[in-house]
């Protein structure tokens, strides 16, 4: 590796994308003693990070100046690639690029290609977790990338996550992204099922608590089901832990990946349709549990 990689435990980290997840990551990196340079397309979303000690940059190039690690937490692969292209003038050969967004299988190859062209050490490193785990530094980091140089990114992973699961040594293969899509397919299926069971209970005049009493303590019970159901029943869909609009994108990536693998995923396709319908109804910024509303042609109870 080049001498651009530090030998201590503190890093200069450029965080590109400071939405719900990116901002939480940036705060935890700053609290861990790293020098954080944050950028967001809408600067106002990054400004609060100054109070946590981060330098708020006007451009990706400014954020990446002198960075040991560039961490992208943007909406999708094209958004991450656009940001890195803008950062290119400041990128040093050997800089580690931690791509933490859910980018999709095809996009990961494009991102890795950009990294090769610019001599960057590419780490495909999407994370599992939502707002609260991100704020608590308890994300699960799914990572693939070169073993030679991991000492550069491990302190970053330690600051944002509770565990790192390595899936390979070649980030370009997208093994971490593939695992993230598999995991997200389960999350979306359970979320959709939670919304449907509550909608059916309402339609049939069944108290939802009776359902929870029936499955309580058995193999059909699930903490995640209860958590998402609670958001619906208690009208706590905002602020979102994971927004409907982002879940629509992830569902689309899952369905596209399955089709390329010559698979038909009926549940994933249905989840994509439900989430898109909820988004069209105006629930895009709410928690993905708001897919519940897709079961109704008009607002429930109206």
Summarize the topology:
Elements: E1 12-16, H1 20-31, E2 35-39, H2 43-46, E3 55-56, H3 60-64, E4 69-72, H4 77-87, E5 96-99, H5 105-117, E6 121-124, E7 127-128, H6 131-135, E8 139-144, H7 150-160, E9 161-168, H8 175-203, H9 208-215, H10 223-233, H11 244-260, H12 266-283
Write structural notes for this entry.
- It is a single chain.
- This protein has 2 domains: 12-173, 3-Layer(aba) Sandwich (Rossmann fold), CATH 3.40.50; 178-295, N-(1-d-carboxylethyl)-l-norvaline Dehydrogenase, domain 2.
- Helices cover 48% and strands 13% of the residues.
- The protein has 12 helices and 9 strands.
- The strands form 2 sheets. A 6-stranded parallel sheet has the order 3-2-1-4-5-6, sandwiched between helices.
- Strand 4, helix 4 (77-87) and strand 5 (96-99) form a beta-alpha-beta unit.
- It is globular and about 60 Å long.
- Mean pLDDT is 95; it is low at 1-5.
The class by helix and strand makeup works out as alpha/beta
CATH superfamily of the largest domain: NAD(P)-binding Rossmann-like Domain
Helix content: 40-55%
Q: SSE order in H/E notation?
A: EHEHEHEHEHEEHEHEHHHHH
Whole-angstrom Rg: 20 Å
Shape: globular
Treating each run of at least 4 consecutive H or I residues as one helix, how many helices? Answer: 12
Strand content: 5-15%
- What is the straight-line distance between the termini? 63 Å
Question: If classified by CATH, what would the architecture of the largest domain be?
Answer: 3-Layer(aba) Sandwich
Give unreliable regions as ranges: 1-5
Tally of structural domains: 2
Largest sheet: 6 strands, parallel
Question: How many strand elements?
Answer: 9
Mean pLDDT: 95
CATH topology of the largest domain: Rossmann fold
Walk across the major sheet and give the strand order: 3-2-1-4-5-6
CATH class of the largest domain: Alpha Beta
């Amino acid at each position: 590796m080049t001498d651009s990689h530090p030998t201590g435990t503190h890093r200069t980290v450029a965080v590109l994308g400071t939405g719900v997840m990116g901002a939480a990551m940036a705060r935890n990196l700053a609290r861990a003693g790293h020098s954080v340079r944050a950028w967001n397309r809408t600067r106002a979303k990054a400004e609060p990070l100054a109070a946590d000690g981060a330098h708020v940059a006007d451009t990706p190039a400014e954020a990446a100046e002198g960075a040991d690690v560039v961490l992208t937490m943007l909406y999708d692969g094209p958004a991450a690639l656009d940001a890195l292209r803008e950062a290119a003038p400041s990128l040093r050969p050997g800089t580690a690029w931690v791509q933490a967004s859910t980018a999709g299988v095809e996009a990961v190859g494009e991102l890795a290609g950009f990294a090769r062209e610019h001599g960057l050490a590419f780490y495909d490193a999407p994370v599992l977790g939502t707002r609260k785990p991100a704020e608590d530094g308890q994300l699960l980091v799914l990572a693939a990338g070169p073993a030679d140089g991991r000492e550069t990114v491990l302190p970053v992973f330690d600051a944002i996550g509770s565990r790192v699961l390595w899936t390979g040594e070649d980030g370009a293969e997208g093994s971490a992204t593939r695992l993230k899509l598999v995991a997200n397919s389960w999350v979306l299926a359970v979320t959709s099922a939670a919304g449907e069971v509550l909608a059916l209970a309402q339609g049939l005049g069944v108290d939802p608590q009776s359902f929870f009493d029936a499955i309580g303590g058995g193999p059909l019970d699930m903490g995640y089901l209860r958590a998402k159901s609670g958001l619906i029943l208690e009208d706590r869909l905002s602020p979102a832990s994971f927004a409907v609009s982002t879940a629509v994108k992830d569902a689309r990536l899952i369905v596209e990946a399955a089709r390329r693998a010559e698979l038909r995923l009926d549940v994933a396709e249905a989840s994509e349709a439900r989430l898109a319908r909820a988004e069209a109804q105006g629930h895009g910024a709410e928690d993905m549990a708001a897919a519940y509303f897709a079961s109704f042609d008009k607002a429930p109870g109206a």
